[in-house]
Amino acid sequence: MNKMLYFGVVGSGSITETHIKSIQKVPNAEVIAIFSRNKETSEKWGKQYNIQVYSDYEEFLGNDKMDIVTILTPSGTHADLGILAAKKGKHVIVEKPIDTSLNKTNELIHVCREANVTLSCIFQHRFDDGIVDIKNAMDLGKFGQLNFGAARTTWYRSQEYYDSGAWRGTWELDGGGALMNQSIHYIDLLLYLMGPVEEVHAYCATRAHERIEVEDIAVASLKFKSGALGLIEGNTAAYPGYSATLDIFGNDGSVIIENDEVKEWNFKNGNQYTKALREVVKTSASSNKMASFESHKKQYQDIVHAISEKRDPLVTGEEARKSLELILAIYESARSGRPVKL
Predict the structure, then answer these.
(1) Per the database record, which ranges form the Gfo/Idh/MocA-like oxidoreductase C-terminal domain (predicted)?
(2) Signed CA dihedral, 153, 158, 164, 166: sign only
(3) Is a pLDDT exceeding 70 seen at residue 82?
């Protein structure tokens, strides 16, 4: 039987409870500690879930019972905090993006490898039922040659959202706007299914918000290394908030994902999407949050099994780096007005 693995959580913001609940659903996994500089919220989670609360990071990392650290702080702090954890022998999980800097990301990957600890990043949508089914169909050659892929995230974030934290909408800690913060999940899925990008040409703009340094609208045209073409749209100015969609078109079949569910599944051979219809949890268009943590749970389950089995998880540091590299190339193209090769 696999041994129990004990988690510590770093950060006490709005996403913290999703992670605690997801971990607690995984057999042989338990959250035992939380570190945050926000005493009020960390003590709330500590009391609610009966976990030890820390206000000092070194002291938190000194908890010898703790095996894994999950980092949920602003994006620009992920690598720095992860490196300290890895040097203390803790396995490291960070929320998306893995960081905002390729150099820091490279260092985090290197330090985790040297310390012989597992590194993963939260891209839970790779574990959505529809994505698992699409990847399996691709691996069986059902799509034939892939010709086009698009990821579009048309959401809405109010001015109050950006004003709610000093780090939001900053290059230093948010690392970007509609692409880096909101669209990165579907950008990760686009790369996961379509493969690496060779060249990108992009435009970014800040049109609907004040007091932010980053984009609230971005569009990019892509050329994949396979020769396929693609598009990315990231948008937090689409009032009142619409959908995240993923289009994959191949010689022999096409699929469209909308809000994490299969909307279209059409193949020349007549193959139909026969999985039982899954209940979609409807939420307000502005929140774009699903009530279920099932995909988070599945990713944590994969990470726990990977550590126990001494194998790589599905989302490694190197895998998480790919979406960061592409988004930074999009920003470079938008700044320079020229195509950028990866």
Answers:
(1) 141-342
(2) positive
(3) yes
